[in-house]
Design a protein that fits this description.
Strand order of the largest sheet: 7-15-16-11-10-12
Number of strands: 16
Radius of gyration: 23 Å
Strand content: 35-45%
Number of helices: 3
Order of helices and strands: EEHEEEEEEHEEEHEEEEE
Structural class: alpha+beta
Helix content: 10-25%
Largest sheet: 6 strands, antiparallel
Length: 252
Amino acid sequence: MKFETCGHTLSLSPEEIEAVLHRQLQHRREHPDLFKGPSESPEYRTECLHCGRHITLTLNNDECASISFQYTSPSSGETPRTLDNNTPCPLPTLQPTTVRFTCKSGRIALGNDLRTYFPNTQTQRFEISNHAAKVAYIQHHASHNYITGFVGNTHVWFVPKDGGLDVVFPGSHESRIDENEWRRLDRKCVHETSTELWWFAIVDAADLPEDATDTYDRKVGFMDLPPGDYEVVIQPETSLDPVVATLRPLKP
């Protein structure tokens, strides 16, 4: 049995299927009250890193194996259901996420994790192991005027550009940016932060105290920015572009 769906291939030999069925049927006989409906086999489970569907071998009607899917993103609202082999992924390619930001004070704060100062962003729990869930997380925070993007455990530069700024992952300048560009960006960088908590943050400075620090007690960076509305474009984590996010004034 071979299932190809959502960019994953789940292959099971007849012997493996027989072993799974034997174990699950035995468990059902031993615990009939616990297995009244379909039951999953945890040793054959994976997740689509794009859309977040769980791909699981499931025993149905005590006699056959099938593949079931479920979204992990809390915003999807999809009911778990069995889908056919070769079911396409709803997110075959990852696209940038675009959100809006309003600068009220004429100054913005830049850092790694600033959620301490935004308790209203903590009212919803997110699983962020796939792209769809990360997009939902970004959009939820943007609704509170808190801009964040996933970059992993690394460091980023905040570099002014075109009336806004770029968030740049410099990496190794030998591999990500040529040396001259690396040195130019290094000179223009207004703040650099380590991202041990995997996300960068941009917020209005008026929402933070002057002595604000991030979760690791590091000072927050500040940058002047004309008051107004801005468009923020955040690249997916698969992007090789060293500019991981851009913030630009919205055109009238």
